[in-house]
Design goal:
Number of helices: 16
Number of strands: 25
CATH class of the largest domain: Alpha Beta
Mean pLDDT: 86
Low-confidence stretches: 1-8, 85-92, 463-471
Shape: globular
């Protein structure tokens, strides 16, 4: 029933009657680079059809020219950056996106997908495609088949197909004439609408829209399907019964940029509030000297913690530019290597001092074990770990590669033994109910499954157990 774990895919798109669409998409993809570094791609709409280029690596590796000559001349374009669960994707790997699906008589569709579907096995068998095909490829085939079989438009096909699939999807698509955006009924992953002059923009985060000089308009609603062309935008909702909003709380904790807005809430404000709350419920020992943040996503929470605790912050860890996020490296060896390449301790800041170390989350523990060892080697007298979220204990099936339960440190090591396992002097976490208070809004509208095991949809935990916890 279930697809292999989590290959988050971040998407953005742009369409307009005039203007350089591909450079705008490239700018948005660079702004989303923190979400995936293993492949990038842009598909451009031309009068002759949809042309697509994908490649391995970062956006500037695949598209070094700010105005890609090979992609000029299109009225609209969509783009994508990706990280995978294992290994890199070459330019011919079907996991690299956007995907361009030839529907023969129904026309061609290009698709960029952020999220993971959890019920595509039956569709693979029905369509006669290989078991190794990605969920995105299955979705593309479902759409083009619906267009060919029923003679419907892509807009109509989205309304026909999407209610049949389960899981996380924020989609940006084009049929060469219009751009479409769609968000799943639970709104697991973010998707924003923006405007730049007479051009409509879609992106996974509002920060990507700002990167073009565009104006953030709003987030797409749960289950919304949006159509954009030179005449404006048109919107409707999917007919899905019983779906309840369950937006990913981890976007606020880690994934999104601090200058983005998710669910109407500033990510910066949510992280700062989490730091304040963490200091109140897990204060530093009286002998503590300084606060050190694990760069970069924990910096805002560390600022809040330090202010509330009345301690100075120091740059006890230095982040080296040009190295991707260790969380999204493909395997354990890759993550360990990424930590060593990415971070180093600053002895002058921590030697002889009792350090309160702030991080945003504890997933596998690979980064934290290495960081604590770095600080001790640099002369820290003691290291007290404070995490601005609860430990991850459950796998994610909706687009984030946290790993299976046996890879999650919080699921394997009891709370009172975590400090010893990580090599620190103490370890405390922000309680879930407090985290939900800091992100704001109705706490029942967030997906917290990775933290508490309450899955908004049916999932296969791979041990024969199926969960269905409607919230």
């Amino acid at each position: 029933m279930n697809d292999p774990l989590a290959k988050p895919r971040e998407s953005c798109g742009v369409v307009g009657a005039w203007g350089p669409a591909a450079p705008a998409v490239r700018s948005m993809l660079i702004a989303l680079q923190h979400r995936g570094q293993q492949s990038a791609g842009i598909a451009v709409c031309r009068s002759s059809g949809i042309e697509c280029r994908t490649g391995s690596g970062r956006v500037t590796d695949v598209f070094p020219d700010p105005d890609p000559r090979a992609l000029r001349g299109g009225a609209g374009a969509i783009g994508h950056v990706r990280y995978a669960t294992s290994g890199g994707a070459g330019p011919d790997d079907e996991s690299a996106q956007p995907l361009v699906m030839d529907g023969d008589a129904s026309g061609t569709v290009a698709l960029a997908h952020n999220g993971t579907l959890v019920n595509t096995d039956e569709a693979r068998a029905t369509l006669g495609i290989s078991a190794g095909a990605t969920d995105s490829a299955v979705l593309g085939r479902l759409l083009t088949s619906a267009m060919a079989d029923s003679g419907v438009t892509l807009f109509q096909a989205l309304h026909e197909v999407l209610p049949q699939v389960t899981g996380a999807y924020s989609l940006v698509l084009t049929d060469g004439r219009r751009m479409y955006g769609a968000r799943d009924p639970q709104a697991f992953r973010p998707l924003c609408l923006g405007q730049l002059d007479d051009t409509w923009l879609l992106a996974s985060e509002s920060a990507a829209i700002a990167a073009t000089g565009g104006t953030f308009v709003r987030e797409l609603e749960p289950g919304e399907v949006l159509e954009a062309d030179a005449d404006g935008i048109h919107s409707s909702r999917l007919d899905v019964l019983g779906a309840r909003r369950a937006s990913c709380v981890f976007e606020h904790v880690y994934f999104a940029r601090a200058d983005s807005r998710i669910g109407g809430r500033s990510v910066y404000e949510a992280r700062y509030a989490a730091g304040l709350a963490l200091a109140a419920c897990a204060p530093p020992p009286p002998s503590s000297d300084v606060v050190v943040a694990v760069p970069d996503t924990a910096r805002v929470a560390a600022d809040g913690y330090a202010w509330q605790a009345g301690l100075p912050t120091v740059q006890g860890l230095l982040r080296h530019e040009g190295v991707g996020r260790s969380f999204i490296a493909g395997d354990r060896a890759g993550r360990e290597a990424a930590v060593r390449q990415k971070l180093s301790a600053v002895p002058a800041a921590v030697a002889g001092r009792e350090v309160v170390l702030i991080d945003d989350s504890l997933v596998r523990g690979t980064t934290m074990t290495a960081v604590v060892a770095m600080l001790r080697a640099a002369g820290a007298r003691a290291v007290h770990l404070r995490i601005a979220s609860p430990p991850h204990r459950w796998p994610c099936f909706y687009g984030i590669d946290t790993g299976r339960g046996d890879a999650l440190l919080g699921a394997q090591v009891p709370p009172d033994r975590l400090a010893g396992h990580l090599g620190c002097d103490s370890a405390e976490f922000l309680p879930l109910e407090t985290l939900l208070d800091t992100v704001g809004g109705d706490p029942d509208t967030y997906c917290t499954a990775c933290l508490d095991g309450r899955f908004p949809t049916a999932v296969d935990l791979r041990d024969g157990a199926f969960l269905q916890q409607q919230r």
